[in-house]
Write a structure and sequence with these properties.
The complex is a heterotrimer of chains A (325), B (164) and C (781). Chain A has 325 residues and is an alpha+beta fold. Chain A contains 12 helices and 12 strands. In chain A, the strands form 3 sheets. A 5-stranded antiparallel β-sheet of chain A has the order 4-5-8-6-7. Chain A has a 4-stranded antiparallel β-sheet with strand order 9-10-11-12, sandwiched between helices. The longest helix of chain A is centred in the C-terminal third of the chain and has 18 residues. Chain B is of the alpha+beta class. Chain B has a 5-stranded mixed β-sheet with strand order 2-1-5-3-4, with helices on one face. In chain B, strand 3 and strand 4 form a beta hairpin. The radius of gyration of chain B is 16 Å and the shape is globular. Chain B is built from 5 helices and 5 strands. In chain B, 35% of the residues lie in helices and 16% in strands. By secondary structure, chain C is α+β, with helices and mostly antiparallel strands. Helices cover 26% and strands 25% of the residues of chain C. In chain C, a hairpin with a 7-residue loop joins strand 27 and strand 28. In chain C, helix 6 crosses helix 7, helix 10 packs parallel to helix 17 and helix 13 packs parallel to helix 14. The chains are: A alpha+beta (325), B alpha+beta (164), C alpha+beta (781). Chains in contact: A-B, A-C, B-C.
Chain lengths: 325, 164, 781
Amino acid sequence: MQNFNYVQVSSPAEALVHLAGDGVEIIAGGTDILPLMKDGLSSPRTLVDISQWHEGRKISATNEGLVIGALVSLGEIAAHPVIKERYSALAEGCQVSASPQLRNMSTIGGNLLQATRCWYYRGPYDCWLKGGERCYARAGENELHAVFRTSPSDSACVSAHPSDPATALLALDATIHYQTAAGSAQMPISRFYRLPTEDRRTMIEIPRDAIITSIALPAFEGRSAYRTVMSRASWTFGLASVALSLRTDGSNIIEAKVALGGVAPVPIRVDSVEARIAGHSVGELDADVLAQLLVQDARPLSQNGYKVALLTGIFKETLRALLGS
Amino acid sequence: MIPPEKHPISLSVNGKSYNVEVPSRRTLLDLLRDGLYLTGTKKVCDMGHCGACTVFRDGTPILSCLTLAAGCDGTEITTVEGLAGPDGSLSAIQQAFIDFDALQCGFCTPGQLMSATALLRDNPDPSDDEIKAGMAGNLCRCGAYQGILEAVRQAARHMQATAK
Amino acid sequence: MTRIIKTKVEIEGRTHEETVVIEEEEPSPWEEGRAFSIVGKSANRIDARERVTGSAHYTYDVTLPGLLHAAVLRSPHPHARISAMDTTKAAKLHGVRAILTHENAASIGWYSGVSKLFDTTVRFVGEEVAVVAADDLDTANDALALIEVKYELLPSILDMVEASKPGAPEIHPRGNVLKSDGRDGELYSRGDVQAGFKQADVIVEGTFKTSTQLHTSLETHGSVAAWEGDELTIWESTQYIFGVRDRVAQALDIPLSRVRVICEYMGGGFGSKGQTLKQPVICALLSRMTGRPVKLMLTRQEENTLSGNRGATIQKIKIGARKDGKLTAIDVEALYGVGAYGMWAGSVGGPAKELYKCSNVRTLVLGVRTNLGSHSAFRAPGYVEGTFGLESLIDDLCDKLGMDPVDFRKKNHAPDDQTSDQQYSSKHLLESYDRALELMGMDSKAELPGKGTLTANGQWKRGMGMASQTWGGGGGPPAHAIVRVNSDGTIEVITGIQDIGTGTRTALAQVAAEELGVPLESVRFRLGDTQKGLFGPASWGSITTPSVAPAVRMAAADARKQILEIASYFMELPANYLTLQDGFVSIEGRKEGRRPLKSIIEEIGDYMVTGKGYRGPNPLEQVKTWGAQIAEVEVNIETGQVRLIRIAAVHDVGRVINPKGLHSQFYGGILQGMGFGLTEERVVDTQAGHVLNAGLDNYHIPTVADTPEMLVAAIGKADTLANHVGAKGAGEPPIIPTAAAIANAIYNATGVRVYSLPVTPRRMLEAIRAHDASVQAESKN
């Protein structure tokens, strides 16, 4: 790890002052930035430690729903009684993330901003996402990579998005609140993640010098669930994940949100399946038909066709669990 | 290159106070091992993927390899060297690890003990699934998991019996 | 009367000759059924306290005044020639003390002379190019970034099938395919396989693949070197302190008497630390250059890239049998990836040769070099892989014959060794099958459940499968031990072995305490220091206990005899009236009039009673270990997840010295076997030759949450022919059949045969798809 200057700040406003300079990175939990620095993928001149911003560690219920401070740890979210009860998908998504120690350290803000786990990105390859010429995974070892949005016209990079909470938050219509030098702003999570483009080689839509301050969840009266399949029982990034939220009126489903993780460069929603579920009674739903619709747009790479089958399996499992059948 | 910058910090490790100067890039793990000669805490991956470097920071189990020492000013750190009593008496968990052969080469053991200690402090009567979830952040390559599960169960029983 | 005897010793499927110098006769064997007070009783590890308090010092923990830290610049190319190098910028960095490259390092031959310590040709990504020693590790790493190297790229081959083809570019002066007896590969043959297949009513064939498994020892390979005058001390994380001593002395061309190697505690090896990598020699050279001690520990990425691995295999297997289930022929042809510098291949054909009675067997194993990190021994090398292929196909055969897998195996039991005219010293494989069934809660004569008959839940299918195990584990000479009795009556057992986490220290202390007749607590067991100890073997091949326990027992017997003779003088009774028990010298075992050992020894002041023992020659019989495992799995046919739910493991490893420690070996073997079977696989970029998953985040060893219910037992019968302690080795047997049993259980659950390990969700789903396609194709025909 290269040397750097280290400063502690106690508020986003203070951090923004430093962020005006060149080569500045923020450290909160440290669980993503330090590995990136140790691997030489990030070499900031200055590291601004924001972990002492105490306001950022709060979870507060409001009339509109719930506000989670950016510095709240994944462990705290997973254990939070209100989140467990009303936003189960998020609690479950946080609970299956990483390990107990990492959940103690990692913040929700940092989790949403984490860099891809693609082994080419993390390795000594001058890959497209890092500013290079090509995506090495496309013609390389891609069993862990994307099966959606893989056409070069969609995204040159075929990495799979690693965040469990992000996928859950997408199914829960979360809004990301952030600050820049220009002031406070917010963005729905569906826009927060965007496929990278030639001129914008990142999956994050908010400006680079922005600081996430909180994540807001709208009031939600439905049920939600999160499932992921890993290659071992615990502590690895999921091969594919499904977050599902349903709002029902008796036996009729008023609204459905289906989000997938680990299968595209960003977490994605599947509108077609949502539309097919909404407005139907539980009894009318055919899980097999929905599962096929779910993967209709999948375009797997050379080694990850299995993810398509896996997704249909896990989707049906999640749907059954949520419908209690 | 950035010139080395040193940060004076005060921290307590296993109840003992230290005032040290650390470079920005020094991790807590390296400070403990190379600076304070507390080598019980192990370095295995240095990337947060194994749990061998687990210590308590203000009571919370964290990975010292992903913690900057400069950020630990004013904190209380507990390492494996701090688990036994001042008279050298082993904690119930340490003793259970011995009795149930919950270790082989022993390299992951310090981290395992820290996680087990935190687990039973927060949940004195864990189910098997809760033990597995609570201990899942510590890899063991020798495969001592069976002993670890038995040791945590036994330590829980022992601690409950002695608490009554 | 000194006699010289030549004897055969088998290590990991290969036999060589050793010379033994016989001075005294060995004790007579501890007979089967003998009542012990310490041996056979579970003991806590005698060094556990150090390991749970953080006070055990591993090589990684060694620190010395003035210690320098070294870091290595490694080749980023799979095959290249270094055409230019410039270290001037690095050398100027504040805190850098020495830099070693091919330009200034002595020409020290490496890899059997094919390469050098620092060579100008590099043959895998990660090969050493330069090393920097600096005041701290950060500075050493900063300096690496300042070294400029120009490479001339050479053609590389990463695929072993390609590399094995005639005309493939040679990556190595000795060719791409390992030779044996002047031909490609290692050939074994008995009978006539073609004739055997003609006699067969049923023939099954399959091609099985296993992936490269990484040892992933938690303590990485590493060394600390310090000179004092012309004497060199090396702290090394190793499975073979004497091997490191010999290699370092040879490399530096200095006498053995000037090299001391220390390894008191060691953080896992699993075979990878039986070899001596370059770092002790590099540290010694840097230390000589700087006059300061130097430490070099591999990083995790380095460890999992270049410190060895279990080579991948491709096994073409064909088996023939008569309708009554009798085997008529087995044919195995296997490729085994050895990496750039591998000099031997794992014994993939071993199980086919030994496991079942069959007159016609041919095995051909081709070790193939590629531009990748070299393999090394990994817990039962070859047998783990070969057992998966053979036992999967045996399962197919049982299916075709409509025979129960246990019944089939019993019918083809081999009572005598078929690779020689020798008999087995002991073989309790048949009992192992019965016991394994019992542990699974079944009748010992029960059949395994039929395909698809176990119930499960929805998309989860359940099944049971089994596999057998054979392996060496007889050990042999040379090994030495000394028992010395201090003037306060405490005992020290002195050896030159190492405890790599297996519990050797404890088990051997139990043997010494038993033979002496003293409590276990009064025995201190010394190991891990070539200067203080006597030669001891490497911790490999499941040989430590059967090799060293007899030496320890003999030394203890010698000391006991002397103690009783001394006691005889002071107690004024003939020595044969006296016994040493529980630390007391007593008269015919009575409590009255007995005297503590301490009080007898005090009588002789500082005269030191010293007992001497060595490992005698091996018997004429073949010493082998045996076992059976039965696995129960659940397979999610929609997501491809496979869970090992329960597994029974029964192994015949001779007399059990410490049941607690033995069971830990069983548990650990099963879990590594499960990793090999379900999750562990090195992934290499096929263009760059770089290991993509050398980190613990994406190389997936099992977590505690993966732990199945493990039901383990040893047969526990003493092998009194093997050695006079009656124990065989136990480190490797338990890993051997696990993956095969899991694969057979998957077939039992789903009807889908998996031909490739590990069975990740990807492989399981691909196997299901291939199976469905073949069923469809068949139904169309």
